[in-house]
């Protein structure tokens, strides 16, 4: 029962953030992001809920607008990494010869921490939203490939795949109609986690100054700008930070919930609690 | 129709080359039922998979032999040509009906897919054909059951669905790999009954692979007894059950529980383990476990020799020698003398 509420809460938070981001241009005052030198570093008040930054811009409005870039990066990276990982994972799991080649490449990529790999790629490509998406997709798909491959290997030994081969069904049909639907649940769960990790990674890259160009408001960029004012205007750092934690936490909770829903064996509460604990630490 | 000639199937493993099928020859005529019996690890399933060419290559390879089906050697066909034969001309049903159906699709869709894989017809015609197949295999209310998922069927019903899928393209040969092993005894009888009816209606030849001698005695026109990758005895059901001429066959039959046995009587087993197929014993493969083995068995590897009309056995003992040995052994059993 508690778990059900947790999942609903997670889904609710995500829905709220998404809706606010999509509709922002309709209800945010047009001048919210304009530079206003008379209102610099105001603390939170009725007029500026989250306070203002060093240019006098409203932080609440910035946080909402920044969510758009962060979410777009997250969704796109999750989609690209999932699709790439699913295709390569299916092929690697099904064809032995391709498996060897694909898995050696994946092993090589997994030797680098994914954030470091993304960092190097962005440094080489230059910082922009597109390049961030390319870099993060590239560094997250190996994990997906591994997961899909291991799921395929498990299912491959089940008799209905052999039965399908016996009735003369061709490989593309076996891959798409027999293997893919049966490995879909780990893909969806892992996709959700990649979504969360991508948001976090984008924020980290922007904070380090190699992410999205500083003129585009993202949560990472806001944190980066706020860090020198942290002692005199802590709200400038706190609110984008809360936005990141909330989104990533909600995504991880949703991912855990989905995993429990898809996998009846993982329903022991003890395990879930421990897992959620580590996720929270990571998100913070 | 199907002729297997001196087939050898070997598997490359870390421990060495496993001679899973070692020079097997037999024929299957149209409409005939051939039973292949043997204990676990005797190479029955590898043989079946060899006929379907479903063994993964590598590590499996076929150093010798031919599998001639309707004039074509299946060992030489391309994957494309094989796909045209699989399911279409040769179909197969498996041991475990619980895991042989794709859990995410309705069984109607799976049947339609099986029909459409090899036949050009509209989806509607394929659906009609699917309903007809389900009726043939005795699924009540087939129209409604088409929309059910595999988990909504019991084991016996799933095996019926699998038989329906196997029959979708009117195959000439049906390979049944332990089709009743995973089922209740009452359901087993129904499935065997069904297979007999289907054979009558469709004229399909059946290769029935099993370790259940009862199944073979009910179904087969011809029985092959396999031991360590070889056929050690071949004959009609009467030959095998009443005149076994190979000590292994005789031991198998003797180890069957009997209804007329005394309650305190212990079941007779065959001592020892099946031989290691990487390095089989010298001479006759069965000699380490054979109650009648002699010095000679260590040296001579017996070939199949004629024992009667269509009855072959691989043993150095002649029919008469074997009979007298059997009598001695049975006499000893009755007196309770340890072997």
TrEMBL record, chain A:
Residues 267-284 have a biased composition (Basic residues). PROSITE patterns: ABC_TM1. GO terms for biological process: transmembrane transport. Pfam families: BPD_transp_1. It is a multi-pass membrane protein. It is found in: Cell membrane. Residues 265-284 are annotated as: Disordered. Keywords: Cell membrane, Membrane, Transmembrane, Transmembrane helix, Transport. Residues 67-255 form the ABC transmembrane type-1 domain. Coiled coil: none annotated. Belongs to the binding-protein-dependent transport system permease family. This is ABC transporter permease. It comes from Oceanobacillus bengalensis.
């Amino acid at each position: 029962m508690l778990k059900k509420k947790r999942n609903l809460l997670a889904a609710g938070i995500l829905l709220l953030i998404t809706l606010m981001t999509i509709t922002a241009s309709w209800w945010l005052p047009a001048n919210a992001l304009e530079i206003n030198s008379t209102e610099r570093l105001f603390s939170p008040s009725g007029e500026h809920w989250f306070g203002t930054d060093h240019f006098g811009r409203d932080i609440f409005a910035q946080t909402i607008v920044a969510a758009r870039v962060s979410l777009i990066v997250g969704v796109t990276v999750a989609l690209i990494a999932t699709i790439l990982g699913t295709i390569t994972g299916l092929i690697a799991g099904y064809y032995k010869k391709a498996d060897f080649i694909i898995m050696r490449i994946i092993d090589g990529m997994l030797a680098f921490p994914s954030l470091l790999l993304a960092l190097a790629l962005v440094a080489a490509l230059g910082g922009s939203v597109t390049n961030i998406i390319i870099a993060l997709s590239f560094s997250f798909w190996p994990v997906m490939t591994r997961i899909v491959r291991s799921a395929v290997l498990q299912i491959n030994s089940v008799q209905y795949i052999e039965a399908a081969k016996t009735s003369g069904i061709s490989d593309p049909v076996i891959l798409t109609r027999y293997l893919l639907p049966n490995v879909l649940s780990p893909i969806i769960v892992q996709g959700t986690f990649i979504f969360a990790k991508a948001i976090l990674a984008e924020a980290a890259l922007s904070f380090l100054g190699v992410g999205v160009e500083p003129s585009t408001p993202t949560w990472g960029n806001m944190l980066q700008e706020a860090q020198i004012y942290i002692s005199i205007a802590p709200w400038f750092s706190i609110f984008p930070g809360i936005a990141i934690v909330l989104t990533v936490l909600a995504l991880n909770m949703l991912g855990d919930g989905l995993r429990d829903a898809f996998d009846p064996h993982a329903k022991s509460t003890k395990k879930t609690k421990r897992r959620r604990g580590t996720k929270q630490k990571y998100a913070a | 129709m199907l002729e297997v000639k001196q087939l050898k199937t070997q598997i490359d493993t870390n421990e060495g080359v496993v001679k899973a099928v070692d020079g097997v020859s037999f024929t299957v005529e149209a409409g005939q039922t051939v039973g292949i019996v043997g204990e676990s690890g005797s190479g029955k399933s590898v043989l079946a998979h060899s006929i379907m060419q479903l063994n993964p290559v590598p590590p499996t390879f076929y150093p010798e032999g031919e599998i001639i089906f309707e004039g074509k050697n299946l060992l030489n066909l391309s994957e494309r040509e094989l796909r045209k034969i699989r399911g279409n001309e040769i179909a197969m049903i498996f041991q475990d009906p619980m895991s042989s159906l794709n859990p995410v699709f309705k069984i109607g869709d799976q049947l339609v897919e099986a029909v459409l894989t090899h036949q050009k017809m509209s989806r509607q015609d394929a659906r009609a054909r699917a309903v007809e197949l389900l009726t043939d295999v005795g699924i009540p209310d087939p129209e409604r059951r088409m929309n059910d998922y595999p988990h909504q069927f019991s084991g016996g019903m799933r095996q019926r669905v699998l038989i329906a899928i196997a029959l979708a393209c009117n195959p000439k040969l049906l390979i049944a790999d332990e089709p009743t092993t995973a089922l209740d005894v009452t359901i087993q009888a129904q499935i065997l009954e069904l297979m007999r009816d289907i054979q009558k209606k469709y004229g399909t030849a059946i290769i029935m692979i099993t370790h259940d001698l009862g199944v073979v005695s009910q179904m087969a026109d011809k029985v092959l007894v396999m031991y360590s990758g070889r056929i050690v005895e071949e004959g009609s059901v009467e030959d095998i059950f009443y005149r076994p001429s190979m000590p292994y066959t005789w031991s198998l039959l003797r180890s069957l529980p009997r209804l007329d046995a005394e309650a305190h009587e212990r079941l007779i087993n065959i001592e020892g383990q099946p031989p290691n197929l990487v390095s089989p014993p010298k001479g006759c493969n069965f000699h380490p476990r054979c109650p009648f083995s002699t010095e000679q068995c260590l040296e001579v590897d017996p070939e199949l020799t004629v024992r009667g009309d269509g009855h072959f056995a691989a043993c150095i003992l002649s029919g008469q020698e074997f009979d007298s040995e059997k009598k001695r052994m049975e006499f000893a059993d009755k007196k309770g003398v340890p072997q």
